[in-house]
């Protein structure tokens, strides 16, 4: 059995015991970020002043003998589509250049109340639209395991910096796999909570019926510690649920756990992925779990359904970026109309993938196409959800590989949007159904690239994911493998896209 | 398998609805790419959904309405701080003239 105390628990305990100050832990994180940035480019902003001020305040509280909050002094990175008061928040978009939120997202306020130190904002695909973090106005982030490969996306910066051990944990957002897929590509844990478990207040909306904020960490135990702090109803988000937040246990007992595997659906994955997945199932079986075949008959329709619903919602949510109240505005000449300003601001401010999705979403919502595309997608979405409901009558969790392949190369899929969309084949269903899901590191390919295994559970049953995930990590050491020699290596990232 | 691109008039109509001043290159590119994506997603149309209630969200009906309590909104100077152009003293966002 390996030690389950991850980097987060270690830092927290050292600060509590007075072995290290919060300031020392925070400075180390900031220094590591600074050393790694030339290779990784995981951050869009580093909040040095805010972080150090918070850390010093925690050290002062400790010296006064005050009880420390649950995450006191723990450095955490936050995806750049989550609002941070006084720290630039752009969602990786030129259209929000210069935007500094006047308020904190609820998750950020809760992290701060729990004593966590927000050290910076992490790079992501623009408005979380992408699977490689290449669609960012800041340029791509590199995968710490292989700098010429994508870290996954859209929360690629959050995954890369935790994988590189610069910070013990980070927050991402997951609309169709944007936490789990980069977690798999970077060899760490990524958890998408049940829809409504975590407040979306202050998250820059992409697809409101699918978006959910969740943690990245090295261990399931560390991820659960972050989730405990950010979960729970929030009066600022009407879709945050009144469900009680349980004390999640990471004892990792999987005796009697029933794991369902949709065999037909996962056929055709990369050999290395298939092999690591089977070995993961065997680990749970050794620890008393039962593995059985299940069917998710509509799972193959999840990608088309997702890209219809997500783009429809995005076309509406992104209407607010018009050059009036915040961010970028096109250069105006005296003859320009208000409409000219809107249209040019949006064409110049948004990147290609965001424009493509706004166009698709506008199309499927427009007169004459609504019923055939959008309404139909909502109906098939109900069938995808019902598949899960049926499966969860006989199993506790559904297991699949997180992705069909390990991390692909930067630039490999950017020319073909549809190929990029297919990278999400195993992850989008959980968002459509609203169920929680986690990706766990479960192997390395022959090229030494991480492989992820995904578990999904019933609505509100993060407990089963945490229990099964902790059991897996007690029996394996994949989560302790780290990428080597990140610092000082030449970055091979392509330059940022030229502004149009 | 080559897919017939969307007609440029159609692409321009959608761009106008979306308030996007697309370049001619973008009109051509999106016309091709949207046609390919639509061809792919069209597979859901053969699915039998007779009697299936459309699903608009996943919150299981327990979404709540907020309490109708007064609260302090964002102060006007704070709200204007991020504006590309504002008449700060008048407390207004500035935009191009909308009336002749």
Q: What's the overall geometry of chain B?
A: flat
Major sheet: arrangement of strands of chain B: 1-2
Structural class assignment of chain B: mainly alpha
Please give the alpha-carbon distance between the first and last residues of chain A. Answer: 54 Å
Distance between the termini of chain B: 52 Å
Radius of gyration of chain A: 21 Å
Q: Which regions of chain B contain 5 or more consecutive residues with pLDDT less than 50?
A: none
What is the average of the pLDDT values of chain B? 91
Global morphology of chain A = globular
Assign a percent range to the helix content of chain B. Answer: 25-40%
Instruction: Write down the overall mean pLDDT of chain A.
Output: 94
Largest sheet of chain B: 2 strands, antiparallel
By oligomeric state, this entry counts as heterodimer
Reading side by side through the largest sheet of chain A, how are the strands ordered? 1-3-2-4-6-5-10-11-9-7-8
Overall strand count of chain B = 2
Question: How many strands appear in the DSSP assignment of chain A?
Answer: 11
Q: Quick gist of this model?
A:
By secondary structure, chain A is an alpha/beta fold. Helix content of chain A is 37%, strand content 12%. In chain A, helix 4 (106-113) links the parallel strand 2 and strand 3.
What does this structure look like?
The complex is a heterodimer of chains A (500) and B (100). Chain A has 15 helices and eleven strands. Chain A is of the alpha/beta class and 500 residues long. In chain A, helix 8 (271-286) links the parallel strand 7 (258-261) and strand 8. Chain B has helices at residues 8-17, 24-41, 76-80; strands at residues 86-87, 92-93. In chain B, strands 1-2 form a two-stranded antiparallel ribbon. The interface between A and B is large, with 77 and 53 residues.
């Amino acid at each position: 059995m390996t030690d389950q105390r991850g980097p987060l628990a270690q830092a927290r305990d050292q600060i509590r015991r007075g072995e290290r100050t919060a300031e020392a832990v925070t400075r180390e994180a900031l220094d590591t970020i600074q050393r790694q940035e030339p290779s990784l480019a995981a951050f869009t902003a580093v909040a040095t002043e805010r972080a150090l001020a918070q850390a010093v305040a925690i050290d002062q509280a400790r010296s006064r003998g005050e009880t420390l909050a649950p995450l006191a002094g723990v450095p955490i990175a936050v995806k750049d589509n989550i609002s941070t008061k006084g720290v630039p928040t752009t969602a990786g978009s030129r259209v929000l250049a210069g935007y500094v939120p006047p308020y904190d997202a609820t998750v950020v306020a809760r992290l701060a109340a729990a004593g966590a130190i927000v050290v910076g904002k992490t790079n992501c695909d623009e408005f979380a639209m992408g699977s490689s973090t290449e669609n960012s106005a800041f340029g791509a982030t590199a995968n710490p395991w292989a700098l010429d490969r994508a870290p996954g996306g859209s929360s690629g910066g959050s995954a890369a910096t935790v994988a590189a051990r610069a910070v013990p944990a980070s927050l991402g957002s997951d609309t169709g796999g944007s936490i789990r897929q980069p977690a798999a590509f970077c060899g760490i844990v990524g958890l998408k909570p049940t829809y409504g478990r975590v407040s979306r207040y202050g998250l820059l909306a992409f697809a409101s019926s699918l978006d959910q904020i969740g943690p990245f960490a090295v261990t399931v135990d560390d991820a659960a510690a972050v989730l405990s702090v950010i979960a729970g109803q929030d009066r600022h988000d009407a879709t945050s649920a009144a469900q009680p937040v349980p004390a999640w246990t990471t004892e990792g007992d999987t005796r009697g756990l029933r794991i369902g595997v949709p065999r037909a659906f996962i056929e055709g994955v990369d050999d290395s992925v298939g092999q690591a997945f089977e070995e993961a199932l065997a680990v749970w079986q050794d620890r008393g779990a039962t593995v059985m075949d299940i069917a998710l008959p509509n799972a193959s329709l999840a990608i088309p359904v997702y890209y219809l619903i997500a783009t429809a919602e995005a076309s509406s949510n992104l209407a607010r970026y018009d050059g009036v109240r915040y961010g970028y505005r096109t250069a105006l000449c005296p003859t320009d109309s208000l409409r000219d300003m809107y249209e040019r601001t949006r064409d110049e401010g948004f990147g290609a993938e965001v424009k493509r999705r706004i166009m698709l979403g506008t199309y499927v919502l427009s007169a004459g196409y609504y019923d055939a595309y959008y309404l139909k997608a909502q109906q098939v979405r109900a069938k995808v959800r019902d598949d899960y409901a049926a499966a969860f009558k006989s199993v506790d969790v559904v297991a699949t590989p997180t992705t069909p392949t390990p991390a692909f190369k930067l630039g490999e899929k950017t020319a073909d949007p549809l190929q990029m969309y297919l990278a999400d084949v195993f992850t989008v269903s959980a968002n459509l159904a609203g169920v929680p899901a986690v990706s766990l590191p479960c192997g390395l390919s022959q090229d030494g690239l991480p492989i992820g295994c995904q578990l999904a559970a019933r609505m509100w049953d993060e407990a089963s994911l945490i229990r099964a995930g902790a059991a897996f990590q007690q029996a394996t050491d994949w989560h302790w493998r780290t990428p080597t020699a990140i610092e000082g290596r030449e970055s091979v990232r392509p330059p940022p896209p030229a502004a149009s | 398998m080559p897919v017939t691109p969307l007609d440029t008039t159609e692409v321009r109509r959608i761009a106008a609805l979306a308030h996007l001043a697309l370049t001619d290159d973008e009109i051509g590119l999106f016309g091709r790419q949207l046609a390919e994506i639509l061809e792919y997603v069209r597979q859901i149309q053969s699915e039998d959904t007779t009697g299936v209630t459309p699903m608009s969200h996943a919150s299981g009906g327990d979404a709540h309405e907020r309490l109708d309590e007064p609260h302090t909104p964002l102060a006007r100077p704070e709200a204007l701080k991020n504006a590309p152009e504002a008449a700060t003293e008048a407390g207004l966002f500035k935009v191009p003239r909308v009336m002749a």
